[in-house]
Amino acid sequence: MNLSPTPILHVDMDAFYASVEVRDDPSLAGRPVVVGGAANGRGVVAAASYPARRFGVRSAMPTAEALRLCPELVVVPPNFEKYTAESRKIMRIFRAYTPLVEPLSLDEAFLDVTGCELSSGDPLEIGRAIKRDILRETGLVASVGIASSKFIAKLASDMDKPDGFRVILPDDVQTVLAPLPVSSIFGVGPRTAKRLEAMGVRTIAELARLPRDEVAKRFGASGAWIHDLAHGIDTRRVTPRRDEKSYSLERTFPKDIHSREELRLRLLEFCEELAFRLRDAGLRGRTVTIKARYPSFKTLTRTHTLSFSTNVGVRFYSAARELLDRIPQGPLRLLGLQIANLDDVRTPHQGMLFGSNPTETEAPAESPERARFADRIERVSPGLDRLRRKYGRGVVIPASLLGREASTGRDGTTGAFGGAARAEAPESGATTELDLDEPPAE
Amino acid sequence: MKVLCAREKLREGLALANSVIPSKSPKAVLTNVCLIASGDMLELVGTDLDVSLRFRITEQVKVIEAGTVVVSARVLHDFVRDFAGETVELDTREQNCVIKSGEDSAELVTADADEFPVVAPFDDAGAFSLQAGTFTSLVNKTAFAAAREQGRYAMHGVLVEIGDGLLKMVATDGRRLALAHAPMDTASGTKPQKASIVPTRGTQLFSRVMSDPLDQVKLTFTEAQVGVKTRNAEVFARLLEGEFPRYAAVIPAESKNYCEADASLLERKIRLVANVTGDEARAVRFSLSPGRLELSGHSAGRGEAHAFLQVEYKGTDAEIAFNPDYVVDGLKNSESGIVKLEFNEKTSPGKFLLGENYIYIVMPITIDA
Fold first, then answer.
1. Nearest-CA residue of chain A relative to B277?
2. Per the count of CB atoms within 10 A, which of A79, A141, A420, B145 is most buried?
3. Cα dihedral A307, A308, A309, A314 in deg (nearest 10)
4. Would you list which residues of chain B are within 8 Å, Cβ to Cβ, of chain A?
């Protein structure tokens, strides 16, 4: 039984991507470094080192602007496989202390250490031990916030960054919250902040003083929520597996793309990437949505729900390319793909007689050849995924994506199902060709 | 038009017609029944343009004046049902139709007979002749497996194939498939030019008009529709377009695991275990070991259940899981006391042999894909 009033930890790595790059290249130490997309071609900053932040460089800022603020800035393209590997180590450290770990991203998680006293100590001891373990095993620095709720714990981890360690006891919550700007509240974005300001509300204390009904009336359900948070009330639990609603991927292109063929290839790449992520998470999805943005910023989405759940890229692609055909011709600035309607692969799954079920509600879906091909891909996927995890994601890719650069996000993210990641495949150096009739040896 | 008819005969005919006639339709005239009196019979015609019925009352009917009238099928049916007398008199008067029974009467508005669609009479030329029971039994064995939602797609019907002395029917919803055939004099008529997919609703109406299994009935196919003629009814159904799934490929020819069980006992035990499975993702696991079949199921909300029965099985231990509803649907129609189940892997189709010429394929539910 844990009697500690502050069993929630929020652990957040300091300038994670940038710190990993600086660790691996000591010549960068102390210099302003960002990880992100190139300045030419709409790149944005994914992470900025603390020296860079002193120049006003922030994440999500266009790289070009960051360079204006800080001409000696070092821009490093991101290497997400490396960050993912570090992230796995960090998450493993968390789980050594408590099973209640809720990752928020690669470098950030909530932990609930209720009842861990006998095995691991009180929350403060656990917090210190985690910081120490992370530094020892990865050479990276984390900030830790400890409190009675998620909201306050997250606030706490941010207060003494970098290398922060802050406990906020329940009795101190009001004092800590009172002077903070309303924008510190999760759920108060710039728009809500502006509307609050128009009501004469700038600080959390001012928000807390408003009658709850009034805030709820003005802002609906989220009004009641932010009002509760302003009082430090946050009953959300730490849930080890958040119910993920969808997986998505979108890319703003360095240059607008007109060619439908090229756009289709991008979609195939996105489909393969999201399918891999779903398989990795043990999920399947049914609803495919594409998002297309024209140079005028006019944005369209088109959605199709399959009659079955899948995590096979070519299955998503069959639907996605038809959706692409349904949007008007014209160059696109951005293309995105979302897979929603997710379910766990362990939920019982009704088999289909005719491959991918040419059902009633669908237009003549996949051709039988495509369906058979997808079935074969599905059978060999577990083997291929093991290769991808071992040798890099680009080690097996669809032939039509051969020799192409992977689409990079504005922050330099790559899906790895393009040429870029192939270079990481050891020895072979080239993409492995597999005969799909022969599942790879285990 | 003036006709006298036994009330019960007329009520039956109208009830049948109302199973075809839509209660609401963008084409208002279709909600009517067309009554045609001629010679010594009264004919009821109803259609929704997909399925059409022509039903003849030849007994206990007296035509005083031949003629045609088109009236609301629902309203006429309700009056005939609620009248108290033994007979009903229908009499057209200008734009109206007066119906009388005993001392009670109603005067119903009529619709323009010229607007009512023409339902062409059954053409005997090229029609097959067969026993009603042959047809209805095949429908009963297969139609339940067809996709259920209303629609005009290939799986919302029963594939009817005629050839080599056999009448064959197949239906599937993509998860299970039922296939049955019976001998028939296939030389008696003209084979359809292409595979005929009869909408499920049509097959149901066919069965309904074939009330006597020993009756000889006629069956005919044209490019777009299938027709059936019995002693007093003609039913036409527009064939479904589209390609029926290539079903032959999914019927396993040989199977590794093969067991025999008592059909009604198996059905009872599946129902028993299914009580514990939830509403979604219902699954009952079949675990076979020599001489024995264990059925088990569980759900987070209810708990778990096990049942056992003796079976004829000699292979090594094997396992497969099915949606219990699907299996029971088939077992209910089992012709023989013994059912045979064959399958290869727990992810490959399960083949139930429910009679000599009756195969039922059910795709398993895979747990942990």
1. A348
2. B145
3. -90
4. 147, 149, 151, 153, 155-156, 172, 174-177, 245-247, 250, 281, 283, 321, 323, 347, 349, 361, 363-369
User: In this predicted complex, what is the ipTM?
Assistant: 0.78
Choosing from B115, B141, B165, the residue where a domain stops is B115
Contact A353 B177 (CB under 8 A): yes
Q: Which of A108, A272, A273, A366 is catalytic?
A: A108
Closest in B151, B247, B369 to A360, CB measured: B151
Q: Which one of A283, A342, A346, A354 would you mutate to disrupt binding with B, by most B Cβ within 10 Å of its Cβ?
A: A354
Residue B31: the pLDDT is 96
Q: What is the pLDDT of residue B151?
A: 60
Q: Provide the chain A residues 274-313 that lie in CB contact (below 8 A) with chain B.
A: 284
- Find chain A residues with C-beta within 8 A of B363's C-beta: 350-353
B337-366 as b/e: b if 16+ CB within 10 A: eebbbbbbebebbbbbbbbebbbbbbbbbb
pLDDT tens, B46-81?
999 999 999 999 999 999 999 999 999 999 999 999
Domain total for chain A?
Answer: 3
Q: Tell me how crowded residue B239 is: count the other CB atoms within 10 A of its CB.
A: 22
What CATH number should be reported for the domain holding residue B104? 3.10.150.10
- Rounded to whole angstroms, the Cα distance separating B85 from B97 reads 18
Q: Which residues in chain B touch residue A382, judged by CB atoms under 8 angstroms apart?
A: none
**The pLDDT of residue A38:** 84
Q: Is the domain of A2 the same as that of A145?
A: yes
- What are the DSSP calls for A271-326, one per residue? HHHHHHHHHHHTEEEEEEEEEEE-TT--EEEEEEEEEEEE--HHHHHHHHHHHHHT
- pLDDT > 80? residue A327: yes
Query: Is residue B102 within 8 Å of residue B85, measured between CB atoms?
Result: yes
* A119 pLDDT more than 90: no
pTM: 0.59
Residue pair A145/A16 in contact by the 8 Å Cβ criterion:
no
Final residue belonging to a domain, choices B201, B224, B247: B247
CB spacing of A349 vs B155 below 8 angstroms: no
Q: What is the CA radius of gyration of chain B?
A: 25
* Pair (B159, B51) in one structural domain: no
- Residues 6+ positions from B190 with CB-CB distance below 8 Å: B126, B220, B221
Q: Is A358 on the interface with B (CB under 8 A)?
A: yes
Chain centroid, CA B343 distance in Å: 29
Asked whether residue A267 falls in the same domain as residue A392, the answer is yes
Q: Which of B177, B246, B363 sits opposite A350 (nearest CB)?
A: B363
- Among residues A150, A168, A186, the one where a domain terminates is A168
Pair B9, B111 in one domain: yes
| Geometric angle at alpha carbon B107, from B104 and B109, rounded to 5° | 155
- In chain A, how long is the greatest CA-to-CA distance? 69
Look up A442 and say whether it is catalytic.
Answer: no
Question: Nearest CA to B18 among B39, B33, B4?
Answer: B33
> CB-based contact (8 Å) between A442 and chain B?
no
**Cβ atoms of A76 and A19 closer than 8 Å:** no
Q: Within 13 A of A404's CA, how many CA atoms are on the CB side?
A: 19
CB pairs under 8 A between A and B: 64
- β pairing state of B41-47 and B51-57: antiparallel
Q: Is A300 exposed, middle or buried (0-12, 13-18, 19+ CB in 10 A)?
A: middle
Instruction: Give me the phi and psi of B107, to 5 degrees please.
Output: -120, 110
Find all residues with CB under 8 Å of A14, minimum gap 6, and list them: A50, A140, A141, A142, A143, A161, A162, A163
Please name the residue of chain A whose CA is at the shortest distance from the CA of residue B362: A353
Nearest neighbour of B174 by CB, restricted to A284, A346, A359:
A359
Two structure tokens written together for B15: 């009830």
